[in-house]
Amino acid sequence: MRSSILTRTLVSAVTVVGIAAGSLATAGTGFAASEPVAKPAAVSGDVSTLATNNFGLTAVQAKRVQVWLKKHHGYTGSLDGKLGTGSWKSFQKCLKQYWGYRGAIDGKPGKNTVKALQHLLKKGYGYRGAIDGAAGWGTKSAFKKFAAGAPSAKRTGLH
Known about the structure:
Low-confidence stretches: 13-21, 23-36, 38-49, 155-159
């Protein structure tokens, strides 16, 4: 009789656990299915102005590049350490003037922008890779060396 009570107790406990687990699983999927799907927020204007591409630079390093662009290439944006459309437009002007960039001054650092940047980086910042327009580790490493040589806002008085 004792083993019969123990068996029934064990079977009851397993059944309760099974029911509870099934209820939780069903509740979880039912809850997830009933949640409304979030819709993306409406954005007006050019979405590219929101994008930044620092090619591996920290915000401090990117800010140094912006200071250099402001001092030498007409950058008028904020010194925020985010290489966005304005920063890249200024850089493209520099690359067009000195490093063979032939694309549009659109602020989008695409393949042609990177190729011209690689020419600059190959000349004096240790880039040894192919001029292929791909911003791999070699390009990023040389870009960091470029940023390290750029003046800081503090040294130039630009803030």
